[in-house]
Design a protein that fits this description.
By secondary structure, the chain is an alpha/beta fold. It has one domain: 3-Layer(aba) Sandwich (Rossmann fold), CATH 3.40.50. The chain is built from 6 helices and 8 strands, in the order αββαβαβββαβαβα. A 6-stranded mixed β-sheet has the order 5-4-3-6-7-8, with helices on both faces. Helix 1 (3-15) packs antiparallel against helix 2 and helix 2 packs across helix 3 (75-85). The longest helix is centred in the first third of the chain and has 15 residues, at 45-59. The radius of gyration is 16 Å and the shape is globular. 36% of the residues are buried.
Length: 180
C-alpha cells in the first residue's frame, strides 16, 4: 500500500472513531482496553472507496475470479472491491438459510475459481477461516485474504497455519502508537 493511501485510511478511520480506547467487553466475553467498530467505517463511502482502491491495486496483477466477503461486516467491503476491480463477488453466510435455495454462499462460485476474501476486523481469524473453509469446500481456491484492521490477537498466525496469506491494511498497533 502506498504511504499516502495508508495515511489517508488511518485518518478517515480516526475521524470516524472506529477504534475506541477504554474498557470493553467483546462478543467473546473477553475484556479489552479497546474496541474496533468497523460498522462506522463500512457505512462511509469515502472509506469504502479508499479500501476498494487499495485492495484492487494489490490484486491487479493476480488472476482473480471472485471477491468474497463473509456476512455481515465484509459484504460492503467485498461490494466496493468488486465495483472497483470489476470482479464478481460472493457473499458467505454465517449459516445456511432455512428457506429459498438454502445456500451458504451467494453468487456464482465456479469450481476452481481463484478468490480474494476480505474481512473488516480479525481477532483470532476463526470466523474468517470458517468462511474460507466454506468457499474451499465448494470448489473455490483462496489466493489472498485482506482485513482492514487486525487486532493482533493471532489471526495472522492462525491463517498462516492453514496456508492462507492474510494481509492486514492496518493493525491495532497503528492506532495504539498514535494514542501515545
Amino acid at each position: 500500500m502506498m504511504e499516502k493511501e495508508y495515511k489517508e485510511l488511518i485518518t478517515l478511520l480516526e475521524e470516524n472513531e472506529v477504534v475506541k480506547f477504554g474498557k470493553f467487553i467483546l462478543s467473546s466475553g473477553k475484556e479489552s482496553d479497546y474496541y474496533v467498530n468497523m460498522k462506522m467505517a463500512i457505512t462511509d463511502p469515502r472509506i469504502l472507496n479508499l479500501i476498494a482502491k487499495i485492495i484492487s491495486g494489490q490484486i491487479v496483477e493476480d488472476k482473480i475470479d471472485k471477491i468474497a466477503g463473509p456476512a455481515l461486516g465484509a459484504v460492503p467491503i467485498a461490494t466496493a472491491v468488486s465495483l472497483e476491480s470489476k470482479i464478481p463477488m460472493l457473499m458467505v453466510r454465517k449459516e445456511k438459510k432455512g428457506y429459498g435455495t438454502a445456500e451458504l454462499i451467494e453468487g456464482n462460485l465456479i469450481e476452481g475459481d481463484s478468490i480474494v476474501i476480505v474481512e473488516d476486523v480479525t481477532t483470532t481469524g476463526n470466523s474468517l477461516l470458517k468462511a474460507i473453509k466454506a468457499l474451499e469446500e465448494n470448489g473455490g481456491i483462496i489466493k489472498k485474504a485482506f482485513v482492514i484492521v487486525d487486532r493482533d490477537d493471532g489471526a495472522l498466525e492462525n491463517l498462516k497455519k492453514e496456508g492462507i496469506q492474510l494481509e492486514p491494511l492496518l493493525s491495532i498497533t497503528d492506532f495504539k502508537n498514535k494514542e501515545k
